[in-house]
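Students often ask why inverse folding is considered easier than folding. One informal answer: many sequences map to the same fold, so there is more than one right answer. In these notes we will look at a single instance of the problem. The structure comes first.
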């Protein structure tokens, strides 16, 4: 499947805010948006352009896609799933995105960024209910148990990440045992559990046209 392979810092500059796609580098002065806080391109260093209503809706959708590392076809599929669920479509959409396995791995502190979490899942380091799952887009459900594989627990990579992210609290909808590196999905996430600056109503307005 096709995936963006360019400089990820360009995505942050395009959206005008940090998307935290490069882990701990995003917290240092090496972050590209700290040095070049304008959109990529030779003609974007002047006065910021005023976006149209459609432009704001499009940028919000692109921002959400970049945060979670989702391509257009899959993002549209998630929107349709959200629209068919009971409740507010925008809240449902964010709930679905939050339950992706790669996002859960990142939220639990096993990785420094979502792209890194996606790679770790693909390499088969995690199990769900005791079975190895290597699909980053797998949507976890209440009652499932996510764990770091026994053979992976001694790797320096995970030890370093868990130490660096020790102060990062696990989401309320995940019951995480840091000693045994096991998490139980106790509920589906709600809007209050998503701390990303996304205006989901603009995405719904875009797809509703």
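Output (designed amino acids):
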């Amino acid at each position: 499947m096709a995936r963006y392979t360019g400089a990820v810092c360009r995505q942050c500059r395009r959206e005008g805010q940090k998307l935290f796609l490069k882990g701990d580098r995003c917290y240092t002065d090496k972050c590209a948006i700290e040095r070049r806080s304008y959109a990529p391109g030779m003609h974007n260093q002047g006065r910021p352009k005023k976006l149209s209503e459609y432009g704001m809706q499009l940028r919000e959708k692109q921002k959400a896609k970049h945060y979670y590392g989702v391509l257009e076809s899959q993002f549209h599929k998630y929107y349709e799933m959200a629209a068919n669920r009971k409740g507010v479509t925008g809240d449902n959409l964010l709930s679905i995105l939050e339950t992706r396995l790669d996002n859960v791995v990142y939220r639990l502190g096993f990785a420094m960024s979502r792209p890194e979490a996606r790679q770790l899942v693909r390499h088969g380091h995690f199990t769900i209910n005791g079975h190895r799952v290597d699909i980053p887009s797998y949507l976890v459900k209440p009652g499932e148990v996510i764990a770091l594989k026994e053979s992976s627990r001694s790797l320096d990579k995970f030890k370093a990440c868990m130490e660096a992210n020790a102060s990062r609290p696990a989401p309320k909808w995940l019951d995480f045992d840091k000693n045994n590196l096991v998490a139980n999905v106790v509920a589906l996430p709600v809007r209050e559990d998503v701390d990303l600056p996304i205006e989901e109503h603009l995405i719904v307005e875009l797809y509703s046209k």
